[in-house]
């Protein structure tokens, strides 16, 4: 069942116009959220980011923060989903052709929920291959990476390259050749015990998982460096991992054809455990407040 513009409809009837500017121009925004045992993890942060993305494209979301929460819980109920991945998509809406957002009087609002399919355990036990690709991350001055937008061709092109290399994820450098991020993930590496990750100024999405992992690292008293890094730093790192809402912490075994020495490394494992602890604590707290 799909939530489409205020109604729950079966998937077969969840249709959007070919004149929707999301379809015509990639004009819109989205969020991906993870549901654990019926609790949407860091829902408020995801909704806040949705509103930030909307503001950056001058889109007025036709619902309040609270109304989005209600719509989300209706969608989960309708699908009887407890462990799920949810996507909220808001496009500019239907309108005649032309780029002017004013052509579209009402945004299209969609919530989709899918039962969570875990990644293969092997990915976490042995690590995955990632590849630094030739496609550069959009220059922020052209399209700010902090807009979680439907305009995803930059990432799609990078993913095509990664797949050709047999890699699960493609890592893009920014226009100045500093490491930016993956097509759907943020990247971290460890050198001499220091946890490093590209700074938001490198032109990346400030991932919610990334933020929580930086928090975990500080709680574990690890030194964290958010900065500008060259690809050599990643290739010669002691440990590498990628993160997002659905992967959580995914260890990396090789970057292109370079093997990473510790896979998964001890700091990666510690952070993965610390993240899982945060998830469990969050679920418990949510359950207590629902009692
Ligand atoms: N992607 N960078 C990019 C380009 C992303 O698309 C994502 C998330 C992230 C990680 O963000 P977070 O930790 O908030 O999930 C970083 C989601 C999962 C997606 O595209 O479905």
Walk me through what this model shows.
- The chain is α+β, with helices and mostly antiparallel strands and 291 residues long.
- The protein has two domains: 2-115, D-amino Acid Aminotransferase, Chain A, domain 1 (2-Layer Sandwich); 121-279, Alpha-Beta Barrel (D-amino Acid Aminotransferase, Chain A, domain 2).
- Helix content is 32%, strand content 27%.
- It has eight helices and 15 strands.
- It has helices at residues 21-25, 43-56, 65-79, 121-126, 153-164, 208-219, 231-235, 266-290, and strands at 2-4, 7-9, 28-36, 39-40, 84-91, 108-115, 128-132, 169-173, 179-182, 186-191, 194-198, 224-227, 239-244, 248-255, 258-259.
- The chain is globular and about 55 Å long.
- The two termini are 27 Å apart.
- The mean pLDDT is 97.
- Bound molecules: N-(5'-phosphopyridoxyl)-D-alanine.
- N-(5'-phosphopyridoxyl)-D-alanine (PDD) binds at residues 32, 155, 181, 184-186, 205, 207-210, 243-246.
